[in-house]
Amino acid sequence: MLTNLKNTLPVVITFLILFISINTSIHFLESNRIDSSLLNTANYFLLFIGIVSLLLQTKAIHHKNPNVFVRSIMGGMMIKMFLTVIAVMIYVYASGTSFNKRGIFIALLFYLIYLGAEVYTLIKLNNNKDA
């Protein structure tokens, strides 16, 4: 259990960096018409699905069959992508005329940052497994 928490550390650090960045630059974001609550919500959402995906993939990395790991990676990324697209569609529908396009683009940039943290963790785990 402690190993799983240690493996999620890069994703949690990414969350904290983005959370602090958003909340220290609220005035800048508001002056550029970017919704900080949208960014915070996206940050929490990406943290949750990133940790779930990472826990599933770290479980699969120790499986004897390497195909299980590959399927886990592809399935995790596909599920994250679909959930993110569904979340954006729900936001667009729910926000109506107050849709914040700049906020959505920044939230999708957050998606890429989380993806980088997850790939970094998985590469590190794979290298440690081979050693």
Describe the protein in words.
By secondary structure, the protein is mainly α. It has one domain (2-130). Helix content is 87%, strand content 0%. It is built from 6 helices and no strands. It has helices at residues 2-7, 9-24, 26-31, 36-61, 66-95, 101-130. The longest helix has 30 residues, at 66-95. The model has no long low-confidence stretch (mean pLDDT 89).
Q: If you compute it from the alpha carbons, what radius of gyration comes out, rounded to the nearest whole angstrom?
A: 16 Å
What's the helix-strand series?
HHHHHH
Instruction: Report the portion of residues in β strands.
Output: under 5%
Q: Number of helical segments?
A: 6
**In percent, how helical is the residue content?**
over 70%
Task: Please report the total strand number as a whole number.
Answer: 0
Q: Largest beta sheet, briefly?
A: none
- What is the CA–CA distance across the termini? 21 Å
How much is the average pLDDT? 89
Q: Indicate how many domains the architecture comprises.
A: 1
Which regions are unreliable across 5 or more consecutive residues at pLDDT < 50?
Answer: none
Based on secondary structure, the structural category is mainly alpha
Q: What would the principal axes of the Cα set say about the shape?
A: elongated
